[in-house]
Amino acid sequence: MTYRNCIIGKQIEVVHSTNWCDLHSKGKVVDETRNMMQTENENGELKWLIKKNVIVLLNGQKIDGKELVGRPEDRIKR
Predict the structure, then answer these.
(1) Is 42 inside any structural domain?
(2) At a CB cut-off of 8 Å and minimum separation 6, what does 62 contact?
(3) Structural domains in the chain (count)
(4) Phi/psi of residue 35, nearest 5 degrees
(5) Is the pLDDT of residue 69 over 60?
(6) What is the pTM of this model?
(7) pLDDT for 78 beyond 70
(8) Is the CA virtual torsion 43, 26, 18, 35 positive or negative?
(9) Which of 4, 19, 11, 16 has the alpha carbon at shortest distance from 68?
């Protein structure tokens, strides 16, 4: 199953990550590429996350970052 909706502008929280520095980071998704997404936290700091390495909480639902891999416009078509 893939997540088909656009995630830009949505609030996320990282609940699992292979990189401990990314764990529990929260923010709004401001940019997205094929393999990465950029978030902005409440202090205005930007952080790039590798999609395949994280599980995020979005709208109360856990989503494996592997489901988000791919360009947003191509993901909607799947």
Answers:
(1) yes
(2) 15, 55, 56
(3) 1
(4) -115, -5
(5) yes
(6) 0.86
(7) no
(8) negative
(9) 4
